[in-house]
Amino acid sequence: MNILLKPKKAVEAQFGKKATMATNLLNMVGQGEKAFGFLTGDLESGFDITVGFFNDTARYVAFKKRSDRKWEESDLRAVLMQIGPFSNWTSKPGSDFFDYAEKSGGKIVAEATGWQSPKRHYAFAFVATLDGEIGILPDKSALDQKFPT
């Protein structure tokens, strides 16, 4: 993966800029959550990106459109490809949810899941479990409130 499961320095290299502090999206500061932000593009065609880290490992990423334009399929494809190859993503027709599986030698070596609702201006992806690390369980309705339409 390009963003998730990477340390902050690798994520900064992915976006080609230093991270700024951002608001934690899961309210898990007591469990070690630290969030950092990146801006891409401009107000007409860019994204406000928040990456959440636990023990310097990226566990979630939120992409919010900087414009008020509605999300298109091309927006979703663009942000998913920032996380990993599009061929590793799956989604059922009509669903707001998507899953990522990266394989090596027939075994799954990395997984993520997330969502993007057509009426919302953000996409969210996360790694729920990681060996030896705290599990995260994002509340979609709580996150929807942080990204109003």
Please compute the radius of gyration using only Cα atoms: 15 Å
User: What is the residue-averaged pLDDT?
Assistant: 93
Tally of separate helices: 3
How far apart, in Å, are the first and last alpha carbons?
29 Å
Beta-strand content bin: 25-35%
Fraction of helical residues:
10-25%
Order of helices and strands: HEEEEHEEEEH
Largest sheet: 8 strands, antiparallel
Instruction: Catalogue the unreliable spans.
Output: none
As for the number of domains, it is 1
The total strand number stands at 8
Write the layout of secondary structure elements.
Layout: H1 8-15, E1 20-21, E2 33-39, E3 47-54, E4 57-65, H2 73-83, E5 89-90, E6 97-104, E7 107-115, E8 122-126, H3 140-146
Antiparallel strand pairs: 1-2, 2-3, 3-4, 4-8, 5-6, 6-7, 7-8
